[in-house]
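Recall that a protein's primary structure is simply its ordered list of amino acids. Everything else, from secondary elements to tertiary packing, is in principle encoded there. The following example makes that idea concrete.
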Amino acid sequence: MKKMGHTLFSELFLLCSLLYTGRAQDAVLTIEPSWSTYFAGESVTFICDMREGRNNDWEYKILMDANQPKPRLVQVSKTTPVGGSVSLNCSVENSAGWKYDWFRQTSNTNEVQVTTNNVNGVIRVSQGGIYRCRGYRGKQIFLTEASDKVTCEITFTNKVVVMRQPNWPQIFRGETITLTCEVQGGETTEWEYKWRRSGSDTPWKYEKTWTFTASESSSGDYTCKSRLRHDPYSSTETSEAFTLLLSDEPKAQLRAAVTLHPNWPQIYRGEKITLRCEIHGGNTEWEYEWTTSSSNKPPNLNEFTIDPVSSSNNGTYKCKGRMKNKPTNWSDSFSLTILETSKPVLSVSPSWLSPGVSVTLSCEVKHPSAGWSFYWYKALPQLPNLSCIYELLPGSTSGTAQDSYIIDGQTHTAGYACRAGRGDPVIYTPYSQTKMVWSADPHPSASLTVSPDRVQHFSSDSVSLTCEGNSTEWRVRRSTLNNYTSTCSYWGTMIRSTCIINRLQHRNTVFWCESGSAFSNAVNITGQTNDGIILVNPVHPVTEGASVSLSCRMREQNLLSSVFFYHNDKLIPNDGRGELNISAVSQSHEGFYKCEHSGNVSPQSWMAVKSVSRTESSSFLFLVWLLVPVILLSFLLLLLCLYKKSKDSCCIRWIQSDSSSQNSTTNQPVNQPETVEYDSLLHGSVDVYETIRPSGDTGTGNHHKQEGVYINMKTRTADAVLTIEPSWLTYFAGESVTFICDMREGRNNDWEYKIIMDGWDSWFDTPQRYELYLSHTGKYQCRGRRRSSDVTKDSNIVSLTVSANQPKPRLVQVSKTTPVGGSVSLSCSVENSAGWKYDWFRQTSNTNEVQVRTNNVNGVISVSQGGIYRCRGYRGKQIFLSEASDKVTCEITFTNKVVVMQQPNWPQIFRGETITLTCEVQGGETTEWEYGWRRSGSDTQWKYEKTWTFTASESSIGDYTCKSRLRHDPYSSTETSEAFTLLISYEPKTQLRADTRLIPVGGRVTLSCSVNPSSSGWRYYWYRDEESSEPLTSPDAVFQPDGQISVSQGGIYWCRGGRGEPVYYTNFSDPVNIYGAAPNRAAVTLHPNWPQIYRGEKITLRCEIHGGDTEWEYEWTTSSSKKPPNLNEFTIPVYSSTLQTTSVNYKCKGRMKSKHLSTGWSDSFSLTILETSKPVLSVSPSWLSPGVSVTLSCEVKHPSAGWSFYWYKALPQLPNLSYIYELLPGSTSGTAQDSYIIDGQTHTAGYACRAGRGDPVIYTHYSQTKMVWSADPHPSASLTVSPDRVQHFSSDSVSLTCEGNSTEWRVRLTLDNYTTTCSIWGTMTGSTCVVRPLLHRNTVFWCESGSAFSNAVNITGQSILGIILVNPVHPVTEGASVSLSCRMREQNLLSSVFFYHNDKLIQNDGRGELNISAVSQSHEGFYKCEHSGNVSPQSWMAVKSVSRTERSSFLFLVWLLVPVILLSCLLLLLCLYKKSKGRSFISRSQRTNQSSATDVNEGQHDQYAFPLEGDVCHYESIKGPEVGEIGSVYSTTDESRDITYSSIELKNIKTKKKKKKESEEKSVYSDLKFKPSTGKIHKNNETKRFVAVLLCKLTLSQLHVGVNSEYLCLDFKWTLNMSPMDIY
């Protein structure tokens, strides 16, 4: 058998008889017990079967690794009702056969073992705490590691409810309420309680009620939770929240109300309003008080005016009145919301003017309400800005009450606007957006023409809008269907008075011109996609009676046939031609027209008809009569001229194909002269050719794209010159250049010209100065041909570099700062390109982009307005535009310094005072600014007022800065001012002090009033009896400087300070009562009058005035945080929450009712509150003696009168560690004495006490349990010790076993007055506690069951290097014999020992024992022994007296047994002698110096004789060997058992028998050692083999000690049939 360790095994030899050097492979190893897993330190038996020969023919060894297991502890359940339990589960995973020990501790207690009958891994516990478990199994107990600690928290399922008393449906501020925490079903359990209010927890306390006075801070949700007083790990769930809602104090009959004047439902920023506090049912003698959530506090007046209002006045306002110190309640809250004025919305009807139709304007505000007047304006353009100036329309000077206005007789385009206003002075809204009323008729002062002159255009068409009239400065504007208005610079190019649109939108758009004084006619322009069709109709109205022709066209075809025309969506009968001709237009022809071709429909356009008067019609006919003859005459003259010119010249005729089917042949130029064909139109040898250009050709284009047949003739020369204008390094796609071809001879018109590009030739159809729009890089050359011959000339080649990307200029703000009135510079440039001029554009975040008029077009301009700028370049005669630059925000910063100034300029400003801050721009006083303020990171809105007036409050504290910007230019501003720090002090507290409160007889009292913190400018106002009374005047008091007055009359005095104009008042000071001196004296008395008061007791403090009457008012002062009520007496339940300190002082005084007479303060009464603590219990004696009474003494920490003492017997409460207490007889009502005598106590018992006093009784805690021990065992509970002695070495293992009428036990001990259990210092298995190691001191042990205590034993530990006294644990019966001995750890018995009794030497004869044949009472006492200077600890030997009957019975028993014992001994000796004659046995004897004589030649053959089965073997008892012998054997089974040993000498057996040699000395020992006298063993091989058999290593589990020991094995067969103790 082997006990396995933490490291690998070394060799393990079991019963070795032979030395073996080879190995076989058919051996079998079996293990007992057979488990799946083993652990380090666990005991197993290895059985190794070699399957051949005898077992003792082999040597063995076993190797194995192992780890110690660790169990896992889990809390299975967590909830249970009060009184229930929860489950814990402990298990060793993947392993069986375990039982478990359990341990518990708390955060305040040490760990103790939990006693339980259930050791199978699951227990139920009724206490929370920190638990561990440990497993054990096997006959030889093997322990696991302890598990990790697990905190077991028990949650009781009992419902917890918060209850309120009084249970009124409404609680008012100031009422006293009590909340109670009730645990349903747990009423009898001792709880402690914790409250939680709106996230804040209270400490745990024993009281389940919480009483407080309701205030604003009391509102909220309340919950509570309970836990066991002595088990903080077991608690209930938190209760459901109880919501406490408090009402304001009940309102008085008189009520205040806040009213607004004027009573408009909406108030706008800048208006003037008045808030008034009206008290219904009252009179005029009121003082008023206001409160507001606004940052500006109102003055305490009946009404106050805010002029102008701003967003800082937003908030709620309440007021109340006070008359003769009787205030009304606060009024209902009045909410004031300040709105921002916004633009009204103007609508016009109709939008287009018709003759005789009136125009109606309608103005709508965003928040319509009472009081508005409306103002109507005509808009006049303001150039070069985008804005308009407004002129009031007739009848609109004072506004109109109606929100509409009618205009008659309007004939031309006009713009209108409106705004609203109200109040006195009038606060206006902003102007509405300008709305246009359009007229289609041009007039001389301003007219708009369109080129091409039609309404509809393709989106890719270029449309020119030209303004004409009595102005040199124009802008073109447009309005889309969504009423969005913008200028030409945004969607086109404005060149002087013409706006060029390169791309039209696919929608109807209205365009018109604006000059500085007038609007032009308006035109409708409609865009169409390039793949659609358009209707060609006139832009301007057609005069009635005139003819008009409408046509339909696609982008690639000028005129379409098979077209259908519609008028107001009705088909007009038509013959399918491409035009709709109306010979005489009438009013019926006015309307919408559209056309349709091959399923494609054009947009519809309006054709207006202008009616004419009779005079206009006659003038038109007369004009036609004059022009017709002139036109005919001019035509005849032209024909004559052509005829004459044809004789000297010829013309090239360009024959154009008539149909598209001939394009393939006519598009090919023919360069061979012999194949040219032409038509001769005139006579003679001169050929005349007509040049007929296709419709729409302007004569300026790329002529190589035109269709025709050309004639190229004859020779060339090379002295022509080609120049280009303008001459730049780089050109851009789409840019126009002019090629100038100079033939250097003749006149320019003698030549025909063509341009050759990259070798591509064309016809001679270009002029001498040819303008071309570039598209890509190339080489250009011109060629000329003389008209009168075939001579041609080629010019030089010119290379042009053309960039495909449109250039984009870069705009930079050159400077940013300037004084007020100055300007900053902007620079615009197109990089790496020359010849540019620039247009400039500006917009803001609120306005559209407009072109900036400037004479400087060279790239740098100076601007005095900030804004968002863009620039655009242009160059060339045919204007080529760059892209617009990116937008650059130009912000102008004025260098003028800005300063914040404060009025009034007091060094200290108090909350509630009115102050004004001014933003001053130095050097910019005449400029129109708007101002922005910033306070501690928060910005205000920009406003025109440079002052900011407000009432100081906490929110006013901070750094103030201001900044100014131009009113009409938000991009031009000053720097921010330096910060002005405003520090607001809280409302100054007025302090009233008196040099004394008692007026001496015939004297005066001086009162001093001051404002804290102190500051200048204060005046003081004094009041007596009531705050609402009139201030005191000179007859009432003597006024002194510096805020002092002297008074001779008693009363209640107040004061307050005031300063400024209007006066700002501080709050009233606290009142000061001035009294005349009364002759009576006051004294504080305590009831009951105990010298010490403990927490939890109920006491009464009383103010007694000697010699007075009953008409007194009382006042108390105390150092406690809780002020006593002003009553004659008051009762205090003394809890720790009531008094913040353990010592509190109280004083009182009295005042005569209705008289201002007062006693002085009483002498101070000091109340000291002590914490109740455990009383201290002492018992005498601690160990019971027959007939001796036990006296209990209970001592409280602070002894005083009134205590009663309660005495208890302690009964163990298993499995917990606690006790339950039963009152002792006569202790139900307590005893006045602090001691208690118990007679007749014979067994071990535990006692406790506690004290109490008062009604109801307040108890102290239970004292610590004190034990009275008895050494006598009794049947119901007894404790035995193994080994059975008092003293043990510290390394010894001692077993304490409990026996009696119980199955559940715990072993406890007391060491230096500290009591604990076995689980702390040992191992509790069942009813046995195994202790190892022992402490080097005296310790008392006893057992406890659920109903009784066992006897107690004293155990003393000693160092392993010392000696111990061997004496019995239990008392020795009087008359019995006893033997005391002395021993060391390595020797069972010592000689030359001295024994002491009560420190007196009683035996020094050198023997190893002290034998007392008949013990008497005189032998009782302390014993110790001494050996070689070492002294053992002393131990008490108790003597138990017996009665006469018991003594006689004992003597009679001895008289009977002695003859029987003697007879048995004689028979035994006779038997042994007879057996020894025929047997040989081995006797080992002591030898001193004979080793040389016993050595035998190793080569001899040895023979041995062994006693076999059936033989009787005799073992002599001999005295132990000296120190240094080879082995030691300790008896661990029963050290009190007598064992007979034999000393055997081993010798070689020769041919003749050796003479036996026996030792006759006989002794009894608990320990035996052997050693040959020579220190050597026989050296022959047979002897060594025999010794190997005898000295084998057995398992550590047989030894029960932690060291290896060698044992003597007499024969292997004996080990199979006998126990180790039988062998030894």
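The chain is about 5% helix and 40% strand. The two ends are 18 Å apart (CA to CA).
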